[in-house]
Every structure is written in structure tokens, then in C-alpha cells.
Amino acid sequence: MGARPDITAWRPRVEGIDEVFHAHFADHAYPMHTHDAWTLLIVDEGMVRYDLDRHEHGAPSSVVTLLPPHVPHNGDAATPEGFRKRVLYLNTSQIDADLVGRAVDSPVLHDPRLRQRVDQLHRSLERPGDELEAQSRLAFVSERLAHHLRDDFAAPSVPGSRIAHRLRDLLDEHIVEGLTLREAAERLHSHHTHLVRSFSQEFGMAPHQYLTARRVDLARRLLLGGMRAPEVAASAGFYDQSHFSRHFKRVVGTSPGHYARAGAAVQRRSSAPRTNAA
Prior knowledge:
Number of helices: 10
Largest sheet: 6 strands, antiparallel
Mean pLDDT: 90
Radius of gyration: 23 Å
Shape: globular
Structural class: alpha+beta
Helix content: 40-55%
Low-confidence stretches: none
Number of strands: 10
Strand content: 15-25%
């Protein structure tokens, strides 16, 4: 009997990603099968061997693998200890269908920067409430994948500041309820990656970082006004208490509870009646 696999799978609240799949297999071998989505694979431990269109390939930890939809492939461990992998199933809106043939010919992408971006995308997907960050990272990953398949790495056009300021205004209008990157792109008649690139160049931070900072500022005011931390989390636009506490501590340097208690202590001291010295 084989070792029991360690598997985590979920559908994130990020348009364009059908499924996130993390797995550690010691001895599992995939039969020939297909997906109706693009399979974006990175291996963290071990190595995967697979056949695609009757050609054998390998996926070590240093590369990114992109398998096209509707093309049969299999897979098993190429190392005795098995393999640990992270997979994103990207729906066909992310990469043009006319690039399937290119992906069949060249599914292995030797690109350390892309691998780092895919890793960062996975990490953001593991944190509920950070969907705008994940959407931004997905936009750049999809763009770079398309560049690989088209063999076109021309430098992007220099972003302008006007669209960045319009996006900042839009984020300011939706601090609590937020908005998706797609909604912002549609309202501003711009492309996802152009929005993120322009904003980052103009303000020195990504849109999701700006929105989080504005929410933390709002949370600080609410805490000092006496609102309880669990109520502040929802009122300031955070996913839940854990999401709120993590970002608040990262920005402010202390927990929401400690921050509120410190503020309350100062207020008590300032409001206490003074006694005249004899």
C-alpha cells in the first residue's frame, strides 16, 4: 500500500484561476489525462517526469512548467523520495488559445524571475483577503507566460502618471468594499498589468499595498475612537480578524488590541482630574 498523499485544493476568489492544488506524492503516478484549463506547475521538492504529445519532459524545482488545455499528459516521480508540487489551473481567459501549439512544443520555461512570481502568487492565494494582491500578481504572471510562448520580451511602454492617479482616486472611493483589478481596468479603460505597473512606478508601491495602508489608517482611527477590534476588522474592509491583525501588525508594529489599549490609557490619563499641589 502506497504512502498517503498530502493534498490541499481550493478555488480562490480570484477570477482567472479555476483551482489551486498543492500536493506531496511519494509514489503516485498520473495516467494519461487532460484538463480544460492551462496547468501552471512548479515543483518544490524532487522532480516530475511526464509525457506530453508523445515527448518526454522533466520538471525539476528550478523551472516553471506550463501544460496546455486539452492535450493529454501523464506524470510520476523521477526521484525516489517523490515530489512536492504547487499547481494553478488557469482558465483559458488568461492565455490565448492560439498559443496551445507553442506550449506543446516548449512546456518547460527556464525563467527564475517567473518562478519567483509564481511562488509569490501562490503565497498570496493562501491568505484570504489578499485577493487584490493575487489579481495583480496573476496579471504579471499571465503576461510573462504569453511573452514566453510568443518569444516576445520587448520592454513594456513607459507608464504615465495620469492613469496611476485615477486608479488611486478609485481606490480611495472603495477603501472598505474594495474592488477587483478587472473592475478597475474596466472603469479606467486600461489593461490590468498597465494599471499595476503605472501605479507602482508613480507611487513606489503596488495598488494592493496602497489599499491595505488606507484600511489600516481607517482602522487606527476607529480603534482610537473606542470601537472594538472585531468590529473594526469588518468596518475597515478586512476579510476577518486574522487578516486584519496580520496587516495591522505589519504596518503599525503592534497588534490592534495593544494599540487600542495604549490609546485608551493615554486618554484616561489626559481626562483624569488634576490635583493642586499643597
